[in-house]
User: Fold FAD-binding domain-containing protein from Kuraishia capsulata CBS 1993.
Amino acid sequence: MSSGEPLIIAVIGGGVAGLTLALAAHQRGVRVDVFERNAEITEVGAGLALGANAVRIIESLGIKDEFRAISSLSTNQVQNIYRRYNTSEEYHRGLYSNPDDHSAYHHRADFVKLLASAIPSDQIHLNKKFKSANQSQDKVTVAFEDGSEFEADILVGADGIHSKVRKYFFRDDNPVNSYQVMYREVIDIKDLKGPFENDLSQTTIWPAPGKRHVVTFPIDQGRRFAAAAIVPVSEDKKAEESWLLDGNVSDLLEILDDYHEDVKNIFRSFKKIKIYGLYDREKLDTWVDGNVLLIGDAAHPGLPHQGANAGQAIEDAYALAITLKYSEVDDDRRKNLNKWLKVFERARKDHAEGVALTSRRMGHVFNELVDNEKAVKIIKDNFRWIFNSDPSTEVQKAVFEYFGYELAFKLIE
Assistant:
């Protein structure tokens, strides 16, 4: 494939979405420059769960062995195990239908460092805080707070839920408060103090009445353990939307007082814990403005109830890398850049926003999971839909829709 001079592509944000895009594009011979606001590539946060849809993509990017070295993998086709909050009795086990599928669990910081290590170092630019951008004559000139500028053909906003690119080109929308908070932290497995009646080697979910649920999973090949508790807050309180706030373990244990001792012993093992308010956003009319587009949480931020947000960011990045490569068959590519970005949007927008919407609804469904087979079926169907997605096929369909048979056939020549 060839269409003259290569495109200059700038990505704001060196997190999961931006780095996956750079790596997937690099694998296809497309250069992407990543601009990260911090002095190093890292992430705050805790454990990160990736479903089979995201794992398939990451393991196709040439880092399979390295990825597995930092991950704990699900076994025996298990997605997750549901236990009764007060007895810890298992009452449902979610399974992958494909025996080759599995989930992967790791620390978010380890994952982004792995992605960065697989990208040529001259494509990652640190200490670059986005200030503004201007579109003119088919170019986007990006200005950074240090006074430097970068001229690109395409600007990608991959800068997360608080996206500066979204605010600058689209809208500065207000967060939608779920009136829930998440307590979460990671602990070395050796510091986990029992006793425990049940096996904790798989992802385990304990839903409880009152919009509460606890999720736990091992990471880093079982060397560390991640735990999160989602609990309600009253409507007169506004929890801050930040990963950096310290929570109080004693407060959480009081909220989980009616939980089984296995769960309480997990949180008793923590000397510290983070807390943050759970918010999402209403969907945007479009992710594309001229030659600027959004991906990941910048485009479709969602609540964490399905553990699907990072996976959707990875699917976005992969689909965009494929779209950029496919655009090389277009002799009028530069004239059609906006059209190619619309191809990507058509391939991803409905699905990713649908996942965000079902994640919002799932916060209510989890409350019904305590003893409700219908709720279990809803969750099973949702996960099957999420894990069986195929971004590559959706991009091909969108290319045909926007460009017709003649150009679409070039992609399979």
Notes: DSSP finds eleven helices and 19 strands in the chain.
